[in-house]
Amino acid sequence: MGIGSAQADQLTRMTGAPVGDNQNSLTAGPNGPVLLQDHHLIEKLAAFDRERIPERVVHARGTGAEGVFRATEDLSDITRAVPFQAEGQETPVFVRFSTVIHPSGSPESLRDPRGFAVKFYTEEGNWDLVGNNLPVFFIRDAIKFPDMIHSLKPDPVTNLQDPNRFFDFFSHIPESTHMFTQLYSSLGIPTSYRKMDGAGVHAFKFTTEECNWQYVKFTWRAQQGDPMFDDRSLLGVSGYQMDEAADVQRTDFNNLTRDLYTAIDEGNYPVWDLYIQTLDPSELNDFDFNPLDNTKIWPEELIPSRKVGELTLNKVPDNFFQSTEQAALAPSNMIPGIEPSEDRMLQGRLFSYADTQRYRLGINHMYLPVNAALSDVNTHAQDGAGFSPPRSGSVNYQPSRSAEGYTDNADHDFCRYDLDGTTQQEAIEKTHNFAQAGDFYRNLSEEEQDGLIEALHADLGQVEDEAVRTIMTSFFYKADSDYGTRLAEAVNVDLADVQELAESYED
User: Fold this and answer.
1) Residue 231 pLDDT more than 70?
2) Residue 149 contacts residue 185 (beta carbons within 8 Å)
3) Rounded CA separation 364/369 (Å)
4) 193 within some domain
């Protein structure tokens, strides 16, 4: 008599063959060795040994949910992108929230940017809007990205994250001032994914069938959020202060996942409004900052936003590994009507994200259910490790005169853009590293300013090199003198040295 419910299905091997005994290995007598011919045992152990895949180098700690995006405005006049062609049009989505630096299994209450990545399953392929909860980033050029992540990750000797290392790196990167100011506010420790806003961070391009185009930025605003600011041009919802986060961490490593999944299971579906800001390319040089610089926001008073849709999450995935862990979201996954801007950080991400997924999941990862397109996939990319769909016929090339083959279509060509310039390796002209950080600081309440200083002191105050502490403090002083003065006292550096350095910076 087998073990298990009488109503349960027959246990089988991966080949489909029935299993007679899943409790005892095949042995040579009562005290003899286990036999290699116990193919069920060998298969079971071998499968277990290979259950895990390489961890994401960033965004390893993640949570996924399924839902739907509904357009609330017809944008067919400015883009041919399928999700925006008619008011009320619905597109199924998968969303993955995550921390950035810390590993899988780490507490969700640690200070870290949060990933906010959305996969739209459209009639013309998958579009991934891969953003964060903060609207800006640490650096503006992807060539710095590996070094930045190395500095933020644990020390290769001790395997401990060390503020000495990452502030040493960022003391050479004044453009990080805005991101650090947002990250060390309570935005750096969200109270809930449901109450967390999101941003595409970069500028993209909306294009029409006639290849008329304009720049566009995307922002998600949580309907169930508690705004921290009256001015929503400064992205933000309530987050934990340091002592509150420590209390949460002592009781629940999974507070954000638990909150999200509990709400969905109870039918309390979270909703986000999608807002866009659009900019005509002729206006690109009309500002004192570069709109293609992802360390900057587009201020609402200069470039107004408008609501164009709603995102609702209404289903917890059936299997964490097959959905959240195998999800492959990449900025390079675009559809007709959406193209990348010249943002230097975005240009690097177009390659890097898809490349990490080819390493982590294999070349055929796009056929995994969570990544599979709802539209027909007709490609001559073939074979390789992992599952690929059944194929038939002799024509595995293009062009061909055979009806077996596929045809391309000039209607889906990339748009043409005029270019003017000389190859160079230089920073952008309008850096303006500090002004928006100062604006953000001054829009905080007194309590939030206190929390920001306390949080920065907790990490920057650990840095042993006084020169690093002084340089970092001078960045914040340049953003706002009150900000820098308070921080100089907190981390014990000479205010006169801070002021002298700050005076040497341009902004």
Assistant:
1) no
2) no
3) 11
4) yes
358 is in which domain, residue-wise?
A: 62-367
Q: Provide the pLDDT for residue 235.
A: 37
Q: Choose one of 317, 340, 367: the last residue of a domain.
A: 367
Active site residues: 59, 132
Over the stretch 439-495, which tens digit does the pLDDT of each residue have?
Answer: 999 999 999 999 999 999 999 999 999 999 999 999 999 999 999 999 999 999 999
Q: Which two tokens stand for residue 179?
A: 């991101």
Nearest Cα residue to 261 out of 398, 428, 66: 66
Is residue 371 within 8 Å of residue 392, measured between CB atoms? no
What's the confidence (pLDDT) of residue 1? Answer: 60
Q: Annotate 242-303 with DSSP letters as a single string.
A: HHHHHHHHHH-TTHHHHHHHHHHHTT---EEEEEEEEE-GGGTTSSSS-TT-TTS---TTTS
Contact 259, 225 (CB under 8 A): no
Binding residues for heme, as ranges, are 353
Mean per-residue pLDDT for 410-416? 85
Same domain? 122 vs 246: yes
Q: 287, exposed or middle or buried, with CB in 10 Å at 0-12, 13-18, 19+?
A: middle
52 in any annotated domain: no
Domain-embedded: residue 27 = no
Tell the residue number behind the tokens 């399924």, with chain if given: 66
For 481, list phi and psi in degrees, rounded to 5: -65, -40
User: What ranges make up the beta strands (E) of 361-493?
Assistant: none
* Residue whose pair of structure tokens reads 């961070």 in the numeric block: 201
- Residue 41 lies inside a defined structural domain of this protein: no
Quick one: CA dihedral 223, 225, 226, 229, positive or negative?
negative
Residue type, 306: R
> Tokens 């000039």 correspond to what residue?
410
Q: Cβ–Cβ contacts within 10 Å for residue 428, how many? A: 15
How far apart are the C-alpha atoms of 93 and 122, rounded to whole Å? 9
What's the chain's Rg over C-alpha atoms? 26
- Per-residue b or e along 179-192, where b marks 16 or more CB atoms closer than 10 Å to that residue's CB: bbbbbbbbbbbbbb
Tell me which residue of 490, 465, 466, 486 sits closest to 477, measured CA to CA.
486
